[in-house]
Write a structure and sequence with these properties.
Layout (H helix, E strand, L loop, with lengths): L3 H36 L2 E13 L2 E12 L2 H21 L7 E3 L3 E4 L14 E11 L2 H8 L3 H4 L5 E2 L7 E3 L3 H27 L2 E9 L4 E4 L21 E15 L1
Antiparallel strand pairs: 1-10, 2-5, 2-6, 2-7, 3-5, 4-5, 8-10, 9-10
Length: about 250
């Protein structure tokens, strides 16, 4: 027969163990819930950095053509135009290695004639000279003096999308510093937000480097994303390089 005292003692010990287990379980569960809630507390901030840079490459295509009914005469006139253009470019301080001669293109307007209005001249001879130079100032100045060619009877074709453009190829050299500065600006914004909300900025939850944009200097700092302005970056010697980083920081009490 069981001893009633031992039975009561065993029941008390079991009750104590159960109580302690419930207390520990509740504490662990509460800590996990608290950690989860704290983990949900974060702020998303952006860091903007812009730098003004100067183009380091100018690309200037000069297309011209002559037309006539005698092919040899038209070709001779085209050659004379080419020499005049090369002389003009040389006078502007542009060097021979910076000048590329395109293939001469000859069109016989009567070769595939199937009726209709006949072209005023049978032969059209075209050629393009392309300037690729890091001397962007010289190229820009030369482009303002093409009237000198017009005075010699040389009419340059202005095909859409084939005008003078300026490129900036030094992006990789400035990327690291700009990313560092943008991240620093994002952290400063997070610190201000945390201070206003009575929190502290913790570790990074997630970060997005952002996309670098090269904009026309005329777009300035007041436009949104690239492409929202009518200004073309390729038409501007001075450009604005922009990057916007997005960083999420945990907030600690």
């Amino acid at each position: 027969m069981d001893n009633p005292i031992q039975t009561n003692r065993s029941g008390m010990l079991l009750g104590i163990f159960l109580a302690v287990g419930l207390i520990i379980g509740s504490w662990v569960l509460g800590a996990e819930i608290k950690e989860t809630r704290l983990g949900d507390r974060y702020v998303t901030v952006k860091g903007l950095v812009e730098r003004s840079v100067k183009s380091d490459l100018a690309i200037w295509p000069l297309s011209y053509k002559e037309a006539g009914d005698d092919l040899s005469s038209v070709y001779a006139k085209t050659e004379a135009d080419k020499q005049a253009i090369l002389q003009f470019l040389s006078q502007q301080g542009l060097k021979t290695p910076e000048i590329e001669l395109g293939v001469v293109r000859v069109v016989d307007t009567q070769a595939n004639e199937f009726g209709g209005t006949r072209a005023p001249h049978r032969y059209v001879v075209e050629q393009q000279i392309t300037v690729r130079s890091p001397q962007v100032d010289q190229v820009s100045a030369a482009a303002q003096k093409t009237m000198q060619l017009l005075q010699k009877g040389i009419v340059l074709n202005s095909n859409p999308g084939q005008g003078l453009i300026y490129k900036f190829n030094g992006l990789n050299a400035i990327k690291p510093d700009m990313i560092t500065e943008a991240t620093r600006n994002a952290r400063a914004a997070a610190d201000r937000f945390a201070s206003d909300s009575g929190s502290r900025v913790g570790s990074i939850r997630q970060a997005n480097q952002g996309v670098f944009s090269i904009l026309s200097a005329d777009q300035g700092s007041n436009t949104g994303e690239a492409g929202e302005s009518n200004f073309s970056a390729d038409s501007s010697v001075m450009k604005t390089v922009r990057v916007v980083t997005s960083v999420e920081y945990y907030l600690d009490k």
